[in-house]
Structures are given as C-alpha cells and as structure tokens.
Amino acid sequence: MLKFTVRRLVSGLVLLVVVTCGSFFLAHLAVGDPTAGLLGNNATPAQQAVLRQQLGLDRPLPVQFWDWASHAVRGDFGTSWRSFQPISEQIALRVPVTLSVVLAATFLAAALGLVIGVVAGRRPGGLLDRCLKLASVVLFALPGFWVSLVLVLWFAVQLRWFPAVGYVSPDESVLGWLRSITLPAVSLSLTAIVLVAEQLRNGLLEVGGQDFVRTLRARGLPERRVALHVLRNASPAALTVLALMFVGLLGGAVVVEVVFNLPGIGSLTQSASQIGDIPALLGLTAVTVVFVVVVNFLLDLVLGWVNPKVREK
Using CA atoms, how far apart are residues 228 and 243, in angstroms rounded to an integer? Predict the structure, then answer.
C-alpha cells in the first residue's frame, strides 16, 4: 500500500507541474500583449511600453515563468493586473464560497445517487429505474444555466424559500449560509446524481450476476452481508464518477456563480478572462489543479482499499 500511495503522489505532482507549466505558456500565447486591454484603446505605444516594463513582460518567457513559479511554490501568485491586489488573498477569500457549493453538491450527488442507484439496481425495470433513465436523457439535454434560472424562478421568486442571489458567510449566519448555497448546490448536483446512480445501478446488476454472489448465498450468508459484498464490488465505478464530477463541478461553478451572483473563484475566473489578467488566471489554474490532484489521490487510496487489485495494476 505504501508503494501504491507514493506512486500516486508522485504522479499527482507531475500532473501539477505539467499543467501549470503548460498553462503559463499557453496563457501568454493566447493573450499576447495585454497592455492594450489594460490601458484601453486610446493608449499610446509609449504608454504600453512603460506598462509592459512595469509588469515584467519585456523579459523572456522562461525568465518570467521561473520568477512566477519560484513565488507560486510559496503560495505567492503575484498581483492582479486589474485590482492590483495580491491574488493569493483574493483566492483565499473566494475559495470557501466555491468549496461550500461544490462540496454540498458532491454530498447531494453521493447521498441521493447511492439511494437511487441501490433501489434501481435491486428493482431493474421498475418505476424508479425508468425515471432514472428518463432523467439522464432530460438533464443532459438541458443547459446548466437554464436549470439554474428555473430553480431561481420557482424556489426563490415564486415560493420565496431561498434567496435568488448572494452569499451569506457561515460566520454571519449558519442558516443563512445553508439557504444561500442550497439552490446553487442543487443546480450543480442534478446531473451528478443521475450519473452516480446510473453507474451504481449498472455495477450492482453486473456484480449481482457473478458466480461469487451465488456462492455466498449458497453458503447461507445473510442477505444483508451479501448486499454489502455486492455494493463494495460495484462501488468503484460510482466513486470514480463522483470524483470526476467533483472536478467537473469546479468548472461548472463558473456558470452557477454568475447566475446566483456568488463571489467564488468561478466569477473571479470569468472576470480575469475578460481582461486577460494572466497572474489571476494562473493562480486560479494552480489552485484548481491542486484540488484535482488531491481528489484523485484520495480516490486512488479509497479504490485501493475497496479493491486490492487496483494496487497491483
């Protein structure tokens, strides 16, 4: 298990280095010279040259990358070209907002996906199983922002159960915090619930027909213990989907945070992209990749514990 853990940790660090390095050079190539966007269309070439020197853009790209990376490993992502504030502080203020919504959506996907998947797997062809198939078609066909707007119109505007926009910190009010993240979390989790439930249902049907299950029943093992063995063998696919959905939810948070006016990293990413704020984009990319690496690392550990064969591959 130790060698397996070390291998996964090393591969995660390699992924972090490759993605951040690639993002740095691709961002500079895509944005080009950002001084025109920062100064406006009326800026003169002399003003652009001065700003380019102030931002350090007149140096070779490898030198710029080394300067950025040497500070980034210490948690210093530089200063925003838009607000002139430390990017690390901006991200630290916004990460709790995004994580609140994403973790709540992941919890909903795990809990409801588990229940729906188990019930649908135990009764294939039943009402819940048919509803699950219908939901998978409908939700994948609907745009995410449209679903978010429908939730706002229904539960916030008409029923007034939840606020339509805004975020309340748990330090101010725990109840207000829960109410402010409920609709965004539900909007993010709907597709994830269906995916997790489908994977678990398919896994239960596949594992339930294998020889070892019939052997366990033939030995007189209680049905509850048989169900636990089946669930343990069917869970890796659902766990993998859940981890991938966590990563996807981080990306989907951009749309949800704009619709619900949440001050998270998604809205910061959108604003930084519009003006070509490369330091902010690189800092957000690095933080997102860290989340991805940590989630994949934890997933590998869980899968290695659930299924020992994974550790041997």
Answer: 22
d(CA 224, CA 228): 6
pLDDT at 150: 82
Q: Give the separation between CA 299 and CA 302, rounded to whole angstroms.
A: 5
Of 234, 221, 244, 228, nearest to 291 (Cα)? 244
Burial grade of 301 (CB within 10 A; 0-12, 13-18, 19 or more)? middle
C-alpha span between 245 and 257 (Å, rounded): 17
Report the residue count for the chain.
313
Total-model pTM: 0.76
Give a three-class secondary structure readout of 87-148.
HHHHHHHHHHHHHHHHHHHHHHHHHHHHHHHHHHHHCCCCHHHHHHHHHHHHHHHCCHHHHH
Using the 8-state DSSP alphabet, how is residue 25 labeled? H
Nearest to 112 by CA among 197, 187, 204: 197
Q: How far apart are CA 245 and CA 194, in angstroms?
A: 11
The residue type at 155 = F
Average pLDDT along the chain, 313 residues, taken 10 residues at a time: 71 81 79 66 72 76 84 83 82 87 86 82 77 77 75 83 84 87 86 80 68 65 66 67 74 77 81 79 84 77 62 52
Rounded CA-CA distance 37/95 in Å is 27
Contacts with 149 (C-beta within 8 Å, 6 or more apart), sequence order: 259
